[in-house]
Amino acid sequence: MNPMKKFKLDSILLPFIAILVTCLFWFVIAGKSVTTEKVDEFGDKVKVTKREGLSADLPTPTETWKASKLYITEPFAKRGELDQGILRFTWMSLVLVAQGYFIALVIGTPIGFFLGLSKKFTQAFDPIIQVLRPVSPLAWLPLGMILFSGVKIVNGDGRTTFGASDAAALFTIAICAMWPTVMNTAVGVRAVPQDYLNVAKVLKLSKSKTLWKVLVPATLPYMFTGFRLSLGIAWLVIVAVEMLTGRPGVGGFLWQQYNANSYAHIILCILTIGVVGYVLDRLMSLVESRFKTA
Amino acid sequence: MPLIEIKQASRGFGSNGTRTEVLKNINLSVEEGEFIVIIGYSGSGKTTLVNLVSGLGHADSGEVLMDGKPITGPGPDRGLVFQNYSLLPWLNVTENIALAVDEVFPDWTKAQRVDHVAKHIAMVKLSHAAHKLPKELSGGMRQRVSVARALAMSPRVLLLDEPLSALDALTRATLQDEISDIWLKNKTTVIWVTNDPDEAILLADRVIPLLPTSPATLGESMVVDIERPRDRKAINHDPRFKKLRAELINTLLDAKGKNKTKSSRKLVLPDILPEDLTQVNTLQFLDRRGPKRRNEMKLEEVEVTA
Q1: Least packed by Cβ within 10 Å: which of A46, B113, B239, B292?
Q2: CATH classification at residue B50
Q3: Contact B75 A204 (CB under 8 A)
Q4: Are the CB atoms for B88 and A194 separated by under 8 Å?
Q5: pTM (predicted TM-score)
């Protein structure tokens, strides 16, 4: 068989089989509604519906589809504050992620440059960074709430448009997503080939010109790797943040549907989060590969 | 007054204990307009020597002077051509050279600078590739860009650190001729470092061997009095070329030979017998065919009845 054809077939067929197998496994462990007829103490025949199975409350794939259909077929519908089409929720989450992510890059990249350029700076701040880096978003959020407890921007008709929880959400996303950018930029700056720096020295380039014409372009590939990882983390954090603050969004929707016992929607949310995360990662790696210089 | 003068310079690397001296008693004097070739083995400190002049490195002791003033750092009056080209991969040919020109001639008008860049690209015959990125160029073309960049700074001295070592022999020959032609036109002072004796004699006014003693030092300079322009085909039969070449190679080889010191070392032969390949491999442990240690072998006496 033509190898190219085989490759194409494999890359479509094999994932398809894997998805099928996963769905089958899901179906097997999921609970099923079983209706039995029995006679109650008054002698009446009653139908009793019970869920049975390994994980009785887990909806089956078909049940999930039935329950989620409305959210997918009308992705931008708005039926209520916490009952909206899935893409509408996704969009809200993305907007928040974009803001937090932007802050992370704007703060993280210069810190990375300072770390990469100055040994003293690294020695001074490395312990702090290493300690703050592994802290979970769930831990940052309450601190953000305290830090920004005074923040309140009210619009014309008296509704708060940007409150403490919004500020805390942005703070959490930014501080969690910042680290890969910081670390990768620092590594990138340290990895700038000595040759390029020698060129800058021989040409007697000024400090700012060395930065913009030599250091930044040479570090770009590393920076973009950091940016990609940061985006992944920002997207991870959003769910936790929305759950804790109760903001409308994919994560908020997930938590609210858990509380409302509509478990099928949880699966819908998980799949949406996964797909969106994957798409974001692909997009970033496309951008990243454009900046791969020799 | 010589343009470049090195007096009793030495240079070593590493800290106490692991310190190695690379250069010692370096004395060199280069006149304006001279083409000097310094030749030496790989790893003998040639780059370190060039860096003394370029200002990327400094001497531990002694003096490195330009126009009688000590060299304290790199500067555009000394154009450096690196062995690995060192073009910035995100800038195209024009931009790479313009980066240098813009920095060195900030008072010129934009048109003047653009003109100057174009002139130097044409000089190395790369006008057709002016907007290509370094990765789209061959090794020879990249090195031409590097030469053009160095020359575009209008340096007093052009320093070339093994500029052609990374190229194949044919491209190297072409570039030697081209650079030699360019030099004949503008007569910039050149310090060229190489490990190729033919290249050295073909190009130089004066060849100076860097003797691979430890630490290395410069040998007697040899004047190449073959008239220019030199034809690479004809020069091979020139008796002066042959004589210089033999002399140069002998000097370098002799220095290398002297560098070897005698030392006696106790050799311990491995206590092992090679694998016996004639023996069929079996699963029996005791009779394995693999390598055996001599001291593990035991003599076995077997009585044989006739």
Answers
A1: B239
A2: 3.40.50.300
A3: yes
A4: no
A5: 0.76
